[in-house]
User: Fold this.
Amino acid sequence: MKFAVIVFPGSNCDVDMFHAVQDELGEEVEYVWHDADDLSEFDGILLPGGFSYGDYLRSGAIAHLSKVMSEVKKAAQAGKPVLGVCNGFQILLESGLLPGAMLRNKDLKFVCKPAQLKVENNETMFSSLYSKGEKVTIPVAHGEGNYYCDEATLQQLQANQQIVFTYTDNFNGSLESIAGIVNEQGNVLGMMPHPERAVDELLGSADGLKLFQSIVKQWRESHVVNA
Amino acid sequence: MYKVKVFVTLRESVLDPQGKAVQQSLTNLGYEGVQDVRIGKYMELTIDGSNQEVEKTVQEMCEKLLSNPVVEDYRYEIEESVQQ
Assistant:
């Protein structure tokens, strides 16, 4: 399976993402600059964290208009897995690939710590190797991770089981403690916590690795004959 | 040439923790009558074009980039400016 790590000016978790895929997951991966106009050779798209365009105007606001984003939309429409982490999640929200928006954390502080998450839905291509209700530890590092959407959108998210991860301690004030959601089709996941920073016990937790392994498992099952 | 002033604020339905903190601070300073503070963004654009065009363009820009309609409201003022 071949992954693309999209790099925007100001991305800073791209190297972690690359490392997680290449060294811990053992799959092919390439960096792709934000002005790329073809992602057809990739099977999975990863939008890393950071501060694209310095968070000018709003987090992700300028990056979502990058050339590569129309290709990311095509990949999403084609059913390929698209994962946005932290700033990557914010970019997915700005682009409309996922519903809602981010507000500043409720206490206005940048929070950087290992966070405990609960797996709410383990029937997605990103979470199938977790068990439902499982508690996992994945680091967070953000100032604007307070998820917000209107009442109608929230009802839709709940009815379609689109909430994949929640915080057990809602430190940033997110609606319904939301830490990660998928789109209606289930192939675009946005999450504030960083699974790519939790891929080895040496780093404090390897709980994030199963997320990447879930993606590969689903891909192998649907693409490789006699797997 | 037109000078356009764009004001972007969080929607009424959205809690503004920054505004809340400033309101609290004003109260601590002794200004007890302050009921609410909402913090927003102010942008100045200089645009070339005809009057009708400018209005339409500004509206589009606000919806596509300058504000996020999920959490923000916008308003704008357009002034004709004489070139110097």
